[in-house]
Amino acid sequence: MNEIQNLNSSEEQENLRIVENMDVNNLPELMQNVLSLANTPAEKDMLLMSALVACGSVMPNLYCKYGIAAKRYYPNLQLFIVGSAACGKGIANLALELVKPIHKKTPLIIPGDATYTAFYQTLARQNGRGYIHESEGSVITDIWRSSTANYNTALRKAAEHETISRARCREASVIENPQVSMVLTGTFSQYHALVPSIENGYFSRLLTLIVDEHQAFNSRYVQPSETSRETIQTAAEQLYHLYEKLLFTKAREFKLTTDQRTRLGKHLETAYPTLIRMLGEDFHSVVLRMAVHIERIAMILTVLRLYEEKSPITHTASADRSRLSRDKNYQSPIICSPIDYAIAELIGNKLLLHMAQAYQLVKGTEKIEAPKVKPLDQKAILLSLLPAEFESKTLVAEAQSQGISRATVLRWNDEWQNHGFIQKIKYGVYKKNA
Fold this sequence. Notes:
Elements: H1 10-16, H2 29-35, H3 41-57, E1 62-66, E2 71-73, E3 78-83, H4 94-105, H5 116-125, E4 129-134, H6 138-143, H7 152-159, E5 164-167, E6 172-175, E7 179-186, H8 188-194, H9 202-205, E8 207-211, H10 226-247, E9 252-255, H11 258-271, H12 273-279, H13 284-308, H14 318-326, E10 334-335, H15 338-364, H16 378-385, E11 389-391, H17 392-401, H18 406-418, E12 422-426, E13 429-432
Parallel strand pairs: 1-9, 3-7, 3-8, 4-7, 9-10
Antiparallel strand pairs: 1-2, 5-6, 11-13, 12-13
Helix pairs in contact: 2-10, 3-4, 4-10, 13-15
C-alpha cells in the first residue's frame, strides 16, 4: 500500500511547496548552484532542505542564543524526508557529496548502521560533532529493534545539544554539547518506527518533509552529466573553504535583529493558534521549537552568503590560520540579513504544514493501522486569521507571510465569495459572514 497516497490534493500539495514560493535568486550562490541540479518542485524541496542540513553540519564555532536562559544552539538540523517509492528521494544524496571532502580531512560522517556503543564512540572521537546520512530509513530503524542499538534518546538530546552519557560496569563517560546533523529518507512506516508517537519528544525536534510525487519512469535512468558532477564538486569545494575559515576562527555568535526577533515571536504566536486548536495542544511544542529551527536556518543562509563574499582560502597554511585568528571581520557577531530571515521564516511556515501532516499520520496510527488523513485546509486557517473586515492588501500580505502566492490567495478570495463565506463591501474591502 502506498502509505501517503491521496494524502493531499494537488492544490494542497502545491501549498506545501517550499522552493516554488520563493525567489531562488535570493538564495546564497552555493544554494542556487545546488538547486540547479533539481528538476521537479519536489526534488527542489528535498535538495534545498538536505543541503541546508549538510551545510549546517560543517559550520563549527557558530552559535545563536535562544530563550530566557540564553541557551546556545548551533546550526545543526535533523531531517526526515517521507515519501513513497519512486518519488525521487535519491536526490537528497547530493547533500552527502557536499560533506565528503571535509570528512576526508576531518572525520565527520557517522554510519546509521551502528550500535549505540559504536555511535557513542564515534561521536566522542569526533569531539561531539557528526553527520548521519542514510537514503533508507530502515537502515536505522531495523537496527534499533535491538535495545543495545537504539540511540533514539541520544539523537533527541543531540538535537538540543544536551549531554549524552554512557555508563558501563568499568567505565562511565559523557559527551558535552553534542552537535549532530542528520538526513534520512524513507517511507512513512520507517518514519513511524523512528517516531512511534506524538508524545515521543523527538517528533518536535525532527524536521519532516512529506513528498507525494512519483518520479517519471524515464528520469530514473538518466545518467548524471559532467556539468552536474562539476556543479556539486564546485559547491563541495566552496563549502570546504567556508569550513576552513570557521574552523580557525574564534566562536562567533549569530544574532537576529530586535525587529526580526520580535516578528518571529509575534508571527508564531498569532499565526498558529488555529492550527494548534485543530490538531491539539501536543502540536504546541512543534510550533515553539520551529522558532529555533527558523533561527538555525537563517544562520546557515546568512553565513553562506557572508563567507562567499570574502576571499577564499585555498589551503590551511599556518599563515592563513594566524591571519584568520586575528582578523576582526571573522570575530564580530554575525547579524542576520533581512533577506535570509524572510527566507528562513517562509521555510519554517512550510515545514510546520508538513509537520502538521506528519502529526496527523502518526496520531492516526494510534487508533487505526492504515491512516486516512483529511488534508490540512490551509484556506480555512488563513480565513480564520483574517479580521472581520479586511482589505485585499491585508489578505495578500498575510498569505505571503505564510508562503502562499498572490495569485493563489486571490483565487481563494473569489471562492470564499462564491460560497458565501465573505461578502464584498466595496472595491478591495471584504467582510466575513457570521
